[in-house]
């Protein structure tokens, strides 16, 4: 009888640990979504800047805000900087997508493991009720 209650306690402890792991994964997924949203907004802003830069004549004055000061910048340099930024943000978004997919797969397997432990607890309790 005591080995039965010990086994049940072990299963409940295992269930609690898996639930905590699942909770951590869900927090990581939410954090990932927030970061992805931020990068998506930045990507849109930079693409808009690039479109504006493409509309300018080659002899147009371009200024970059550095702290509280506007500093004159070469159009080609500004264009290259914006393109590099877009490239970087796009790469980060791809990395975040891969990370998110991995986290969601882990979340799915944790849920499956939790269901299995819950079923074992239920069958254990059902067996105990019959005895």
UniProtKB/TrEMBL annotation:
GO BP terms in the entry: chaperone-mediated protein complex assembly; protein folding; response to cold
Cited SUPFAM superfamilies: Prefoldin
GO molecular function, one term: unfolded protein binding
Chaperone keyword on record: yes
InterPro entries: PFD_beta-like, Prefoldin
Matching PANTHER family: PREFOLDIN SUBUNIT 6
Protein name: Prefoldin 6 isoform 1
Organism annotation: Theobroma cacao (Cacao)
């Amino acid at each position: 009888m005591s080995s039965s209650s010990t086994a049940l306690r072990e299963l409940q402890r295992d269930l609690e640990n898996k639930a905590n792991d699942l909770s951590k994964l869900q927090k990581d997924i939410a954090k990932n979504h927030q970061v992805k949203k931020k990068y998506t907004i930045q990507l849109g802003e930079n693409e808009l800047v690039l479109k504006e830069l493409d509309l300018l004549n080659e002899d147009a004055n371009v200024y970059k805000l550095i702290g509280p000061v506007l500093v004159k910048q070469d159009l080609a340099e500004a264009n290259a900087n914006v393109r590099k930024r877009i490239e970087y943000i796009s790469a980060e978004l791809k990395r975040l997508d891969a990370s998110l997919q991995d986290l969601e797969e882990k979340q799915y397997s944790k849920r499956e493991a939790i269901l299995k432990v819950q079923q074992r607890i239920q069958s254990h309790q059902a067996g105990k009720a019959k005895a």
